[in-house]
Amino acid sequence: MTIAYESGVNLFDTAEVYAGGRRSSFVITTKLYWGGKAETERGLSRKHIIEGLKGSLQRMQLEYVDVVFANRPDSNTPMEEIVRAMTYVINQGMAMYWGTSRWTAMEIMEAYSVARQFNLIPPVCEQAEYHLFQREKVEVQLPELYHKIGVGAMTWSPLACGIITGKYENGIPESSRASMKSYQWLKEKIISEDGRKQQAKLKELNHIAEKLGCTLPQLAVAWCLRNEGVSSVLLGTSNPEQLTENLGAIQVLPKMTSHVVSEIDHILGNRPYSKRDYRS
Predict the structure, then answer these.
(1) 182 Cβ partners below 8 Å, 6+ apart?
(2) Is 100 left (phi over 0), alpha (psi -120 to 50) or beta?
(3) What pLDDT, on a 0 to 100 scale, did the predictor assign at position 6?
(4) Closest to 99 measured CA to CA, from 61, 142, 54
(5) What is the C-alpha separation between 159 and 83, in angstroms, rounded?
(6) For the chain, which terminus, N or C, has the lower number of CB atoms within 10 Å?
(7) Contacts of 30 (CB under 8 A, 6+ apart)
(8) How far is CA 139 from CA 101, 109, 273, in A?
(9) Above pLDDT 70, what percent of the chain?
(10) CB neighbour burial string for 126-137, b if at least 16 within 10 angstroms, e if fewer
(11) Which of 246, 231, 270 is nearest to 134 (CA)?
């Protein structure tokens, strides 16, 4: 955290299921859904939102978080109950704002409509997966929501769980995340036909990174940052060296010209098109 903060990072994302400078200079968020094994310790019921956030604050020894996120949708809890509970914790001073994570555009719109109907507080931000191989939601769906209701985008997994680092180019290294039993799904994704195609594209992208004088991970993070609709890119690292490398993406950002972005789009071949693109 010290390396990150001294390098200019001021947002720290946590969650109640995950294992403290001056508080006013940090933006600290937390996510609620998976709290414990009991039915009352997970989900987005009023009980769990209030008790889960209180528990997170106690563990972090904080009076409040800047943003509390609903870590996924909860089909078992009425939307009105969720929005009322989020409004309550904000009014109680436990959070400044609330947002969503992994919600569909329709679910976010429903929360906004409920908030307007009952004079409650709507979500201000969606945490969405966004990287070179996952683009539709952040580049098409969320911009439309932003223009309609002002919901911003905070993105996660810019390196696609390590796939975009290039370390899986020649298979699954023994010490990698994909070699762990709990990440069998990641291993299957990497060795699939689509996974092999992605590795081939990463080889081509690495040539662009070399021309820009950066690493492939730095190029990938800078590519996420260059999107004007993205307010923050969340980084997850295993050691200080990875963090320092990823933060180097800030120096690459000025090099992300329209020509470079077009080159990347040409290699990826997956640019999504919005209604606005078709109209123009």
Answers:
(1) none
(2) beta
(3) 67
(4) 142
(5) 32
(6) C
(7) 13, 14, 15, 16, 53, 56, 60, 65, 68, 69
(8) 16, 17, 8
(9) 91
(10) bbbbbbbbbbeb
(11) 270
Structure-block tokens of residue 116 = 């307007």
For 215, residues 6+ apart whose C-beta sits below 8 A from its C-beta are 209, 245, 248
User: Helix, strand, or coil here: 270?
Assistant: coil
Length of the chain: 280
Catalytic (active site) residue 130: no
Active-site annotation holder among 5, 18, 64, 278? 18
What integer pLDDT is reported at residue 15 of this predicted model?
Answer: 61
Q: How many CB atoms lie within 10 A of CB 121?
A: 18
Residue 68 parent element (H or E): strand 65-70
Tokens representing 29 are 């968020």
Q: pLDDT tens digits, residue range 26-70?
A: 789 999 998 777 777 789 999 999 999 999 999 989 999 999 999
Q: Assign 123 a pLDDT band (cuts: 50, 70, 90).
A: very high
Q: Is the pLDDT of residue 14 over 90?
A: no
Task: Give, for 69, the enclosing helix (H) or strand (E).
Answer: strand 65-70
Two structure tokens written together for 263: 């080159």
For 38, the enclosing helix (H) or strand (E) is none
Q: What is the DSSP letter of 137?
A: I
Let me know: does 238 contact 224? Beta carbons within 8 Å.
Answer: no
pLDDT at 278: 40
* Strands across the sheet containing 125-129: 11-13, 27-32, 65-70, 95-101, 125-129, 152-156, 230-233
Structure tokens at 278: 């078709």
